[in-house]
Amino acid sequence: MDQKILSLAAEKTTDGLQEFLQTLKEDDLTDLLQNQAVKGKSAGALLKAIFKGLPCSEEAGALKRLKIYSFCIQLLESGDLQKEVASEIIGLLMLEVHRFPGQLLVELANEFVGAINEGKLTNGKSLELLPIILTALGTKKENLTYGKGELSGEECKKQLINTLCSGRWDHQYVIQLTSMFKAVPLTAEEVEFVVEKVLKVFSKLNLQEIPPLVYQLLVLSSKGSRKRVLAGIIAFFNKLDQQHSEEQTGDEYLDLVTVPLDELRHVEGTIILHIVFAIKLDFELGRELLRHLKAAQQGDFSSIICPFSIALLLSVTRVQRFEEQVFDFLKSSVIKSFKDLQLLQGSKYIQSLFPHGCCISTMILEVVNNSVHSWDHVTQGLVEFGFILMDSYGPKKILDGKTAETSSGLSRMPNQHACKLGANILLETFKIHEMIRQEILEQVLNRVVTRTSSPISHFLDLFSDIIKYSPLVLQSCSSKVIETFDYLSFLPVQTVQGLLKAVQPLLKVSMSIRDSLILVLRKAMFASQLEARKSAVAGFLLLLKNFKVLGSLSSSQCSQSIGVSQVHVDIHSRYNSVANETFCLEIMDSLKRCLGQQADVRLMLYEGFYDVLRRNSQLANSVMQTLLSQLKQFYEPEPDVLPPLKLEACILTQGDQVSLQEPLDYLLCCIQHCLAWYKSRVVPLQQEEEEEEEGFYQYLDDMLESITNRMIKSELEDFELDKSADFSQSTGIGIKNNICASLVMGICEVLIEYNFFISNFSKTKFETILSLFMCYKKLSDILNEKSGKGKMKMASRTTDSFLSMKFVSDLLTALFRDSTQSHEESLSVLRSSNEFMRYAVNVALQKVQQLKETGHVSGPDGQNPEKVFQNLCDITRVLLWRYTSIPTSVEESGKKEKGKNISLLCLEGLQKILSAVQQFYQPKCHQFLKALDATDKEEEEEEVSVTQRAAFQIRQFQRSLLNLLSSQEEDFKSKEALLLVTVLTSLSKLLKPFSAEDVEVEKTNHFALVNLKTAAPTVCLLVLSKAEKVLEEVDWLITKLKGQANQKIMPEEASSQAALTNCPMEKTTIIQLGTLLTFFHELVQTALPSGSCVDTLLKDLCKMYTTLTALVKYYLQVCQRSTGIPKNMEKLVKLSGSHLTPLCYSFISYVQNKHSKSLKCTGEKEKTTAGPTAMARALRETKPIPNLIFAIEQYEKFLIHLSKRSKVNLMKHIKLSTSRDFKIKGNVLDVVLRQEEEDENEEGTASEHEGQNKEPAKKKRKKEMKCLS
User: Fold this and answer.
1) Which intervals hold domain FANCI solenoid (predicted)?
2) Degrees, nearest 5: CA angle 306-308-312
């Protein structure tokens, strides 16, 4: 039978074939086809012949053809056919589709859809036919029966796709079905059907099935719905990540994890690669991704900006077209996140609305951790982004050359947080990815070397952290470090010190790096540039501190080193302590040569020797002998010679140039500190002291004792520094005398500390100290008197005080708190001098100021944060006791004593210390407050919180402020009040947010602090600044509301859900605006004086109306899909119309009238000179008025739009603004009209004079203008 069919099909006409096939039953044909197909014998030719003999022009033939076609589909799905036969049959079936009439195509498509939804497919081979069928159906123009109605072919196709996407898809065919739609022409709506269906199926598939499905979906997105595809993929993986995080932090007994972490990360990496590849082929997809994420910035941040989307963005940076846009977006997102966090921290009601604020920095660092799972395509973007953040938001240089940064890194400024995040990204990436380490290190060191004019402390900190992580890892990059050493001579000293501190751990594990550094430093020691020699000294000193010699005290026996104390590397290297001793002694020989160089180089050496001694106590002999031999050059050995030091030898005179050659005060200071440390730490530990060691420190003691005694005996004339001496800066002698005076004052301070250290509370020694202070003070007074910049000179002297912070702490404690009976007599010597006590407090203030500005203090342990903190606590305890025990009103300042009240100085010190503690020691605030409470008991430590301790201190200062405010007006000290308010503000920041109770006091409309003197501008500007802050918060809330409204989430239930969640935000926004409206209602009725108060109020009113307009625009946006406008919004609009807008216009008239009067007064006094100036000032002061009027009119304009859209008459309580271009003044108009009549009469009598006819016309125009003013 098959041969007959084939032979008939070979004939020229099909008549015979058609007749023969009509005689056969459908079952016969299908059985024949099945036999041939299974056997693999010319099934394709037979099928082709059958289709040829069953034309669609005849109904019977078409129906039989449909049955054969359906059977072939079943045959393909059976899986009984060979691959070649199945492919041949599919090819033939594809060719035959377009010959079917539309109605049969509908039936065929319905069969397919039914089979798919019912799960009847067995291998899915026939699915290749469905896109051809749907495409053919879409081309049919005639109406076709579908269901109970008739539709066009295109509409039928749409319904079929809708039905297909509404049904259930077998998991194994999801990818094939998605791929199938690529070949079907789809409308935007149809693409949306398909995309939504595929995204819903994601959660039901195995993880490994998702990447190929995403690939097909991305290809399909070229037809439309790009945004929905990207949003769906991001949302799915964000949800997976959250689930995994919850499972990891969930119950301990949870054994099974839904998705293995490693598998999830690899799948995410593959998906990201697919998306980036798709973006390279379709740039519109990349633009859509950025648009989608930018929209999320304003709305629900966490739902879209997540670790997966950030990783995706970082990978997209590899596409050059989007690189800059993506980094800009990420930068703005980071800054916005930190600013939002700052806003949240400062606002109670916003915290209640957003209790779990998300932080993008956590997400980015999570991406870094995730990138370990072969995310190489993300790593490069991470590195670039890290450097972009550090470059963009690192510390900046300010005008006076200082750096606008804090060394603690605890500041809450968003820029500093962003810079720190960049450093963390690079550090964590360095730890995880070995391949990228060389690049990170090179970029960090390049910035250190090339950016000599801008602050690079953040890069040095990062470099130090990298080395601390693993010095051994850095050995592989040693060539780059050695190359950097070649530039040391050209770098600023601070940079050199930071760089060498960072590389200390490397020097202990790499001989090549150490040898290279030594070579560079030795060359620099003899360089022509002063900075290079200073860098060499700094480098050598650091080496001495960090290469311990055998027998040196352990860290438990001596305090930790400064700076390099942060290096926590303990490696058993080949450099043993014996080798270190030889190495250190070689360096000491090199450093001795510095004692013949400039004063700046020597000064660095003296400042560094003390720290060397503490780290390497075995070098004490070498260091002390060096210092001793240097001092002998300037010491007068004869006990009767006055003065005891050769000051002339310390000064270098070259022609007219006079300069300091030997900083003798620093030399003595170094000797004093080294000697004190040696005697207190080393000597007690030595069982058998060698004679030479005992000799050198005893010899130094004798020298210092002799210098002290002879300094007391010396008069200023002995130094040639009496009042008659020349101290001008314009002559050589004047400069020389200034240098000598500075040296003498420094020496006096050093000797004061030395004698206090050895005094053991001896009355004689304290008298000596007071004598030394009087010598210091005499010189200070002369300099103040002689110098035109006396105050500044004195300030600079105390800023550079040689007194150590520890000594200042001990001295203040002795002066104010020591009540030991045996010390009473001796301390009375010092306490008898108010000037000395004031001097001690002043030095403490200067030390704290230095800490605030630089992050450290001068002198021993000045760069050790722990020691500085301890000294701060001790000083604060003393100053607090002194201020609270002896208030400023009680303290007797003396009859003719000059200088500040000591209690006021103590308060000023407390204010500075509180600021410094919050700036540098934020985590230690509890310890700080605990240290202030002298009665505190150990067992109460856990019970008393920071808030309770801060509240206790606040109550003390509140009492002081209350006493001050209760005093007579003539006794009121405004400076003390301001300091107290600042202290209270600082302490209030230590309170737990919202822990303070609101206390209602009586007569809240009367405050002693608000009077005619303070009301304007002080109080007025303060309350306006608070209003501005609330306005800023409300603006932020409205922006959030708009952002959430813009995010298109699931239609019905989600929008109702969003409406519910937005309700508290809307309610809070309206309540805050209502409060502000009431506030402004009162202020616009106040007769404020011209100036800053009026200007600020007008600007804030303008902001108020702009914010109201923004809220109205939000309701314009959402009122179509919500139930309408809330009642409290209607009340707010009513309140604005009745209580604010009319009063604003009255206030504007008041301001304009006030300016008009002032202009008239000025014009009468000085018509020529002051007129233009006054006019300019008036224009400047009234400039905010047009802005305010425009803001009011914009508000009313959008209210009208909202009324129309919401069908609620919001304008019924608002009187529309009248045009303010002009107004007719009736009384002026009458006068002008009468004058016109008189002018006309005059014109009639004097018409012969033509020249006079023009003048009245001019006057007339002027008068017309006048009445329209």
Assistant:
1) 64-280, 378-541, 995-1228
2) 115
Give the integer Cα–Cα distance in Å for 568 and 468: 7
Q: Is the pLDDT of residue 1164 over 60?
A: no
**pLDDT, mean of residues 147-164:** 77
* pLDDT at residue 1056 in the model: 44
Rounded Cα distance between 1032 and 1030, Å, is 5
Each residue's pLDDT tens digit, 740-769? 989 999 999 999 999 999 988 899 999 999
pLDDT at 478: 81
Task: Give the position of tokens 């912070």.
Answer: 805
Token pair in block for residue 150: 């008739």
Helix axis angle for 493-507 and 511-525, nearest 10°, is: 150
CB-CB contact of 1198 with 1113 (8 Å): yes
pLDDT of residue 1074 exceeding 50, the answer is yes
The pLDDT value given to residue 1266: 41
* SS3 label, residue 555: coil
Out of 354-358, 827-831, 1032-1036, 1064-1068, least confident range: 354-358
- Residues with Cβ within 8 Å of residue 334, at least 6 apart in sequence: 360, 361, 364, 389, 418, 421
Matching residue, tokens 């402004």: 1080
Quote the percentage of the chain above a pLDDT of 70: 76
Contacts 24+ apart (CB under 8 A), 3-12: 5/32, 5/46, 5/49, 5/50, 5/53, 6/42, 6/45, 6/46, 6/49, 8/49, 8/53, 9/45, 9/48, 9/49, 9/52, 9/53
C-alpha pair distances (Å), 676 with each of 604, 609, 619, 757: 20, 13, 16, 8
DSSP states of 1225-1266: -HHHHHHHHHHHHHHHHHHHHTTT-HHHHHHHHHHHHHHHHH
Contact 437, 950 (CB under 8 A): no
- pTM of the predicted protein model: 0.78
Task: For residues 608 and 540, give the distance between their C-alpha atoms in angstroms, rounded to a whole number.
Answer: 10
CB atoms within 10 A of CB 305: 24
